[in-house]
Amino acid sequence: MSTSAKPSPVPAAAEAAVPHRDDDVRRKLAIRKAYHTAYYEYQRRDMMYLLVILRFVNAITIRTFFQPDEYFQSLEPAWEMAFGASSGAWITWEWHHQLRSSLHPAIFALLYFVVDRAMGVMSMYPQFKAIILAYLPRVFQGLVAAVGDYYTWQLAEKVYGQGSNAAFTTLLITSLSPWQWFCSTRTLSNSLETVLTIVALYYWPWALYGDSSAPKKTSPDAAEADKATTSSQESQIFKTNADVNSLRICLFLAAIACLLRPTNLFIWASIVTVSVSRLGLTGTSPAKVSDFLIILREAVICGALALSISAASDYYYFGVWTFPPYQWLYFNITKSLAVFYGTNRWDYYVTEGLPLLLTTCVPFTLIAFFSSTSIGTEGAFVSNVRFQFTFTALTTIATLSLISHKE
To answer: Which of 74, 106, 181, 292 has the most C-beta neighbours closer than 10 Å?
Structure first.
């Protein structure tokens, strides 16, 4: 009776000697990933250097005059803060009525004070000190503008992908914009507000705009394990401390921007509205109740911190406890005294303001507006984020158009 021969077992030494292709593939992928990570890290660093150089040249070559606000709402009160009431600063009437937050001029006051003391220690000539103090605020604002350009690019990379053509095009548009060249290095509170908003948007939890119903590229076993270990109330957006810290940076900067310019509230109101209600978004929200509770908790904490800093700064400058955003809203909205400085048509922002800001990008902006409601090949996430930006732009412009005094 014949029996089938059983295969002899492979010796352990021979099995260990057989090359594992999976290990080789994983090793090569890890090396490639590390290479790309290092490459993009150096790219981001070099690009930041280039943007700083660009805005430095921008700051020192601007010779035109735009608005008196770049002096009377920032540098004049900053000079008074740094060198005293008898220093010859020209303080306009609105500062006597606490209509402006002292946070913005306080930044330049600190720069004035520190640099002046440093030059005093080095016994520099008064003429040289005057030149340095004259250029100091604009050079600093140039650095702030470079940060705005950099985070605009990084925000586009977060949305469209690292190294994408869309992100690089965004960088070119913002860094080479004629309006940015004309306005971004001026010491206007609007310029600082813009940069604070851009950085805050970069740190906003954009994972809220994903689609949890979209199929994931995982094995069946991994999918089952994920279902078994994930609670229905467990946070899906803020999984690590880094996620929560990013949210804190976002909310704190947004609060400071709103204190500087109360109309910045319109931007964040539209973002919160869409994030919570998913108005106009596609797919199923990946967020849980705990995610929104975390946002609410951090908004209270970061908002209280920003208010405390603002209140301390205002008390130091004005000598009394006051809340300039309320004073500003009461003056401009309730009493409508801002119309003394001029009124514009209801369509001013659409027919004059936006073409002035966008210049040659107007056609591309119109195309982007019309395509923001459709899902392209990028997927639901990119489509949802584009819709959010479009919704924010339209609602903010529409709301500001209702105000008679426009800037």
So the answer is: 74
- Which residue carries 């089938």 as its tokens? 4
Copy the structure tokens of residue 157. 């990379």
Domain ranges of the chain: 30-174
Asked if 391 and 270 touch (Cβ cutoff 8 Å), the reply is yes
State the pTM of this model: 0.87
Give the Cα separation of 130 and 10 in Å (integer): 85
Provide the total of helices (H) and of strands (E) in the chain, helices listed first. Answer: 19, 0
Give me 344's structure tokens.
């514009």
Q: Summarize pLDDT for 146-195 with one digit per residue, the tens.
A: 999 999 999 999 999 998 999 999 999 999 999 999 999 999 999 999 99
What letter would DSSP give residue 212? T
DSSP states of 189-208 as a string?
HHHHHHHHHHHHHHHS-GGG
Query: Cα(335)–Cα(329) distance, rounded to whole angstroms?
Result: 9
Calpha distance 372→369 (Å, rounded) = 5
Instruction: Give the 3-state secondary structure of 29-84.
Output: HHHHHHHHHHHHHHHHHHHHHHHHHHHHHHHHHCCCCCCCHHHHCCHHHHHHHHHC
DSSP string, 153-203: HHHHHHHH-TT-HHHHHHHHHHHS-HHHHHHTTS--HHHHHHHHHHHHHHH
Tokens of 270: 């539209």
Q: What is the pLDDT of residue 311?
A: 95
Tokens coding 108: 């330049």
- The encoded tokens of residue 131 equal 């030149």
Give the distance, in angstroms, between the CA of residue 45 and the centroid of all CA atoms in the same chain. 18
- What average pLDDT does this structure show over 47-53? 97
Contact 83, 112 (CB under 8 A): yes
Cα radius of gyration rounded to whole Å, the chain:
27
Q: Average pLDDT for residues 395-405, to the nearest whole number?
A: 89
Q: What is the dihedral of CA 383, 386, 388, 389, to 10 degrees?
A: 180
User: What letter would DSSP give residue 234?
Assistant: S
Q: How many CB atoms lie within 10 A of CB 387?
A: 20
> Is 80 exceeded by the pLDDT of residue 279?
yes
